[in-house]
Amino acid sequence: MVKIVSKVAILVLAAGLAGGCATQGDLDAVRADLSRTDKKADDAAAAAASAMAAAERAEEKAGAAESAAMRAASAAEEANSKLDRMFKHSMMK
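Structure (tokenized):
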């Protein structure tokens, strides 16, 4: 049993060594990639914040336009009603 365990341990150790270790250059490359990824994430967050602000401004403008449209519709309805009354009054004469 000890022989099998020692053979397995030697194989695992050999595989670990054969697999290689990360060099400082490899670690620097990974850090550089991570830094670029962080910058991209920061840029995306800034773009999302800008888009959110633009959407909020558009929502405010849409609300103001809807309010103006409702006032215009009300005024048009009132004018139509007045014209109808005037027409009916003129037809009665």
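Helices lie at 2-19, 24-92. The CA atoms of residues 29 and 35 lie 10 Å apart.
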